[in-house]
Design a protein that fits this description.
With 237 residues, this protein is an alpha/beta fold. It folds into two domains: 121 residues, 3-Layer(aba) Sandwich (Rossmann fold); 100 residues, Orthogonal Bundle (Arc Repressor Mutant, subunit A), CATH 1.10.10. 43% of the residues lie in helices and 20% in strands. It contains eight helices and twelve strands. The protein has a five-stranded parallel sheet with strand order 2-1-3-4-5, sandwiched between helices. A hairpin with a 3-residue loop joins strand 11 and strand 12. Helix 2 runs parallel beside helix 3 and helix 6 packs across helix 8. This is Stage 0 sporulation protein A homolog. Keywords: Cytoplasm, DNA-binding, Phosphoprotein, Transcription, Transcription regulation, Two-component regulatory system. One of its GO terms (molecular function) is cis-regulatory region sequence-specific DNA binding.
């Protein structure tokens, strides 16, 4: 029995399913498999896996519906792995509750890297018993109780909106947040004016966080989709 996480592979193509299963087994992960949406939902409810790898093009239902069903009872990480590369498909999946989106064909190295990110985020959520924890990522430290943030030991002078953006990204470290999700969380709606405001405030926040605008360290832009806070090792920052 593996001491690592259990992954539910939802994929109707046997060759792709076997590739993922072989990769997980070689790295000492436990795994379950499902070839359609109905089986996937049943496996997720019965076995409570740590992460789901989910194809969208399933024979009995769209993978988006699987995400919505699972989200009615669980926040477990869902990584979509699909041949659909259109931005609208990615946004729909992420807005439905997916944590990440990997486009086929993919490398096993990237698959494992995305898995590690999701497992780190899951571990943080499970260990977060204090309602006002201190968040650390590289040289960023956020004290949620004091509503303060520091970078390399120096207090960041943030506007209320910038602080809200930073904490929203921090609480979802490793997860791609769509523009629509962010604007609804910050302003309560996602009209054109909020989208424009998001770009302005995000640019201001990044100026205060990133040593170089050309090589962002903490906040990754997914063009046309949204933003993600990257996990940064203190030694590298």
């Amino acid at each position: 029995m593996s001491s690592k996480a259990t992954i539910l592979i939802v994929e109707d193509d046997p060759s792709v399913r076997n590739l993922m299963a072989t990769t997980l087994k070689a790295h000492d992960y436990s795994f379950l498999t499902a070839g359609n949406g109905e089986t996937a939902i049943m496996q997720a409810a019965t076995h409570n896996p740590d992460v789901i790898f989910l194809d969208l093009g399933l024979p009995d239902m769209d993978g988006i519906n699987v995400i919505r069903k699972v989200r009615t009872w669980s926040e477990l990480p869902i990584i979509v792995i699909s041949a659909r590369s259109d931005e609208t498909d990615k946004i729909e999946a992420l807005d439905a509750g997916a944590d990440d989106y990997l486009t086929k064909p993919f490398s096993v190295e990237e698959l494992l890297a995305r898995l590690r990110v999701s497992l780190r985020r899951l571990s943080l959520l499970k260990n977060r018993t204090d309602p006002s924890p201190v968040f650390r990522n590289g040289e960023i430290v956020i004290d949620f109780a004091a509503e303060t943030a520091t970078l390399s030991g120096q207090e960041l002078h943030l506007t209320p909106i910038e602080y809200k953006l930073l904490t929203l990204l921090a609480r979802n470290e490793g997860k791609v947040l769509t523009y629509t999700y962010i604007t609804k969380e910050i302003w309560g709606s996602s009209s054109g004016s909020e989208m424009a405001s998001l770009r302005v405030f995000m640019a201001a926040l990044r100026k205060k966080l990133e040593p170089s605008a050309n090589s962002p360290q903490y906040i990754q832009t997914h063009v046309g989709i949204g933003y993600r806070m990257l996990k940064v090792d203190a030694e590298r920052s």
